[in-house]
Amino acid sequence: MNNRSMNGFTLLEVLVALLVLSFGFLGVAAMHIKSMQAAHLSYQRSIATLAAQDAGERLWKELAENPPVCPTANTGDTWSVEWYGEWSQHLPGLVHDGSTISKNDCTYTITVEWQDDRFGGESVSNLVYVIRLPGDVS
């Protein structure tokens, strides 16, 4: 047996080991990026949920000020403009035209939409919230 063949790793074996290790690190980095995106999306959806609940609370306030008629759901209403002004500071990319409140009887569909280009064209920036108020249809 040749004494030279038993002296440890060759340079080729070390290079292959480094290549396998670097692919492993690339996988860990990609997984870390995806987890950061998911955490950011979770944060944005939490803020959007709070914004939708706030819009619902403002509808309750409008109902309390003019009972028993259900409030209007126009984007030009004072409370709607104030709502957008306040929440656009907390949710960057909040779309004014895309964030709507529609009324069907006394059931309101509150859609909060924001823009985020971090997800490569995926449609993840939209939240729909439905609330029913106990008022009369006007």
Automatic annotation (TrEMBL):
Name of the protein: Prepilin-type N-terminal cleavage/methylation domain-containing protein
Annotated organism of origin: Halomonas flagellata
